[in-house]
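Form 7-S
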Amino acid sequence: MTERDPKKTGNYLVNPRKAFVIHEDNIVALQEYRKGNKQAFKEMVEKRNALAEEGIPYWNTDHDAEMVEWAKERTDNAVIRGWKFPTVKRRKK
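Output:
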């Protein structure tokens, strides 16, 4: 795996052979869009919303545990560097 200086940017370059796709429906929508279906992304979002309302993941769940661990590590490192995160989450109505 190739990477930039993540301490500065937090951005990583990944070897495409080791990469995985989380939102596979995005690829299908892009292919459909290129074939002329200009509503492909709108249709994708509508399908996602329907699945989300049913509590069904619309993403590839194969790497969920890995992603959770990655997010936890990055958050812990950010806190060590002094980042402040809200302790109470409130949605705007």
